[in-house]
Amino acid sequence: MRIVKVMSAMGASSSSPLRERKKRATRSALKRSAVGLVAARGLAAVTVEEIASGADVSSRTFFNYFPTKEDAVIGWDPTVLAEMIDGLRLRPGDEPGPAALRAMLLAVFSAFDADHRDLLERLRVIRSDPHLVAHHVLRWGETERQLVGALAERRGTDPATDHYASLVVATTLAASRTAMMSWCDKEGRVPLADELASHLDVLGTGLAEPQERLL
Predict the structure, then answer these.
(1) Closest among 123, 92, 105, 106 to 185, alpha carbons compared
(2) Mean pLDDT of the chain
């Protein structure tokens, strides 16, 4: 799912050419096809050709959108990552890094609520397969690397040696992943952005133990 509406809120144009809308529709159709087939039969029993057929496109078209069937299931979209980087860059220059990262992610997670049923099903499928879990973590790692670069850019530092930027991004994304899985356990009964905010609030306290401990 692209986050054009999110970026509009951050100052980007909300206009989208017809071609871009068609591309987003095709990407969404491929993701739905992949998740549906894998949910029914398991990852190993599903082919790229079947996923493409389920979205009424060719296998060649599939590879214009996803490098692997695993990426189609987890919904990997490099354009969303690029927009996340742009969203972080658009935050006020004097805003502390953790606050800028939080604001950008809350905007992204708010956009996810538009198709929360699809996201819920995707998360369930990912959690059911260790291979998909590993692939999901791999893609989160790429997200982390690029966000560290963007945060270091804001600070005017080298991302290879800016341990502060690395720690801020790593802990924030860990909270984000935990929030997504907690939200999945709750069957999406609360807005995903609210679930993320509650996790980031805990992180913001310096991981101080809550007064009321969970049993």
Answers:
(1) 123
(2) 89
Phi-psi region of 133 (alpha: psi -120 to 50; beta: other; left: phi over 0): alpha
Predicted confidence (pLDDT) per residue in 187-202, tens digit:
989 999 999 999 999 9
pLDDT bracket for residue 115 (50, 70, 90): confident
> Helices then strands (H, E): number in the chain?
11, 0
pTM: 0.83
Tokens of 208: 């101080």
Of 51, 53, 56, 52, nearest in space to 37 by CA: 51
Q: Are 116 and 39 in contact (CB under 8 A)?
A: no
Say how many C-beta atoms besides its own lie within 10 A of residue 109's C-beta. 23
Look-up: residue for tokens 């969203």? 87
**Residue for token pair 């804001």:** 154
User: Counting every residue, how long is the chain?
Assistant: 215
* Domains of the chain, CATH where assigned: 4-204 (1.10.357.10)
d(CA 43, CA 186): 25
Q: Tell me, what's the pLDDT at 112?
A: 80
